[in-house]
Amino acid sequence: MPPRDEDDELHAISEVARCFGLSVATLRYYDELGLLPPAGRRGNVRHYGRRELRRLALIQHLHHGGMLSLADTAAALGERGPDGVRRPAGRAVLTGAIQLIEDRTADLRAAQQRLAHLLTCPKDDPVRECTQLRAELDRNVTQALGR
């Protein structure tokens, strides 16, 4: 860990939580996971410097943006496991996350196409009467019954 600048202002956990829109409990949890250790403590109060705040911004970017789970965020950051060994999962985690996003995107596009079809279906009540939707539902029922 590089030495800390002398002018690196430390911020109390409550201030960091407020400024980043998180709860104090969330920051404590991140610390427990080893994901975001504080720069230091004054009494029982955790304090964070610029380095930790930058790391928190990265965690939020990766996790809260829906790109990675919290576990995958930790793995992507190359955290050390309980045995002290660094987890070498960064690129593999990112590759897996990209695949999940591509799969989800394909599912969403298919859903969009189904809804768009229902909007243009000539039936009076397309949700109940659409021939194409009924055929798809029949296939789903047949598959579910294993026939």
CATH class of the largest domain: Mainly Alpha
Note the overall shape: elongated
Order of helices and strands: EHHEEHHHHH
- Please give the share of residues in helix: 55-70%
What share of the residues does DSSP label as strand, in percent?
5-15%
Global structural class: mainly alpha
**Count of strand segments:** 3
The number of domains is 2
Strand line-up across the major sheet? 1-3-2
**Mean pLDDT across every amino acid position:** 88
CATH topology of the largest domain: Multidrug-efflux Transporter Regulator, Chain: A, Domain 2
Which residues sit in consecutive blocks of at least 5 with pLDDT less than 50? none
Give the biggest beta sheet.
Answer: 3 strands, antiparallel
How far apart the termini lie comes to: 61 Å
**CATH structural architecture of the largest domain:** Orthogonal Bundle
How many individual helices?
7
- What is Rg? 24 Å
Pfam families: MerR_1
Protein name: MerR family transcriptional regulator
GO molecular function: DNA binding; DNA-binding transcription factor activity
InterPro entries: DNA-bd_dom_put_sf, MerR-type_HTH_dom, MerR_fam
Describe the structure in your own words.
The chain has 147 residues and is mainly alpha-helical. It folds into two domains: 1-88, Multidrug-efflux Transporter Regulator, Chain: A, Domain 2 (Orthogonal Bundle); 91-147. Helices cover 61% and strands 6% of the residues. It has helices at 13-20, 24-32, 50-64, 70-76, 90-120, 126-129, 131-145; strands at 11-12, 40-42, 45-48. It comes from Streptomyces paromomycinus. One of its GO terms (molecular function) is DNA-binding transcription factor activity. Keywords: DNA-binding.
